[in-house]
Design goal:
Elements: E1 3-11, H1 15-22, E2 27-32, E3 36-42, H2 46-60, E4 62-68, E5 71-77, H3 87-93, E6 97-105, E7 108-115, H4 118-129, E8 133-142, H5 164-175, H6 187-194, H7 198-231
Antiparallel strand pairs: 1-7, 1-8, 2-3, 2-6, 3-5, 4-5, 6-7
Helix pairs in contact: 5-6, 5-7, 6-7
């Protein structure tokens, strides 16, 4: 049975999106259970991580936090609000399914939506537009079961900010072997097949590369720090002030 695989990003007033607006350089990946919301937080630096953790404690009542480097796992009670309705709730009403995780980054929340029909998807997008800004980032029909495994293997925000032309140029460069050492073809020939001049091709390629690097920076930084930690000698665990664990934030009231 064919289905539609769509990425949309939304900016509307809600506790989680408000946090992303306040900390646009921090990525928050959200998984939801029946009673709790679980966030994986990736910040560009430790001080920034501490600030966002304090803000999450104060605004959404963080119940438990495990921290390592610039990354943290935050468990909260599900934030509930009456208006506007959550994007997940709107998807449920239209018979659509949200594939986790939901990514909060740059003041936007990005969803991967599976829909059985184009009509249901259009109604869902119209519903979301009533609550705030919405952009359809990508949309494709799928009809093969072996494609389903790819639904959760790529961070949903990785291609945000890329134009259709930049994506085309990036694919052309990869297929033309420009990233191989040595390059399989000259940029002039690849650019000609893509229908643009060499200078235009190079400009779009650099912008696409920069955008993808910016989008993947939290993951690259986390991987880099993990590699550094494994090469360093083990440090003795130290106690904080009396009664305080080296890592952890006490539960706060859930305000939503």
């Amino acid at each position: 049975m064919p289905f539609l695989d769509t990425r949309v990003r939304v900016q509307h007033p809600c506790p989680y999106c408000d946090l992303s607006v306040a900390f646009p350089d921090v990525e928050m990946a959200l998984w939801t259970s029946t009673r709790s919301d679980v966030f994986h937080i990736a910040a560009p630096e430790p001080a920034r991580l501490q600030r966002v953790l304090r803000a999450m404690l104060e605004t959404i009542g963080a119940r438990r936090i495990t921290q390592e480097g610039t990354s943290a796992l935050v468990v909260t009670h599900q934030a509930r609000w009456t208006y506007p309705p959550s994007v997940t709730r709107l998807a449920d009403r239209r018979g659509l399914w949200v594939v986790p995780p939901t990514i909060y980054f740059g003041g936007w929340e990005t969803y991967r939506i599976v829909s059985p029909t184009i009509g249901a998807l259009r109604k869902f997008v119209a519903d979301v537009k009533k609550t705030g800004d919405v952009e359809v980032l990508s949309h494709r029909a799928r009809d093969q079961l072996d494609r389903i495994h790819s639904l959760t293997t790529i961070p949903v925000h990785l291609f945000e900010g890329l134009t259709d032309r930049q994506v085309h140029i990036l694919v052309s460069a990869l297929e033309g072997g420009l990233f191989e050492l040595p390059a399989r073809e000259k940029m002039d020939r690849v650019a000609a097949r893509a229908g643009v001049s060499r200078s235009t091709f190079g400009e779009h390629l650099r912008k696409a590369e920069m955008q993808i690097l910016q989008n993947s920076y939290p993951f690259l930084k986390l991987r880099d720090q993990s590699a550094e930690s494994t090469s360093q000698p083990a440090l003795r665990r130290t106690q904080g002030p009396a009664g305080e664990s080296p890592v952890g934030i006490a539960a706060g009231p859930n305000r939503y």
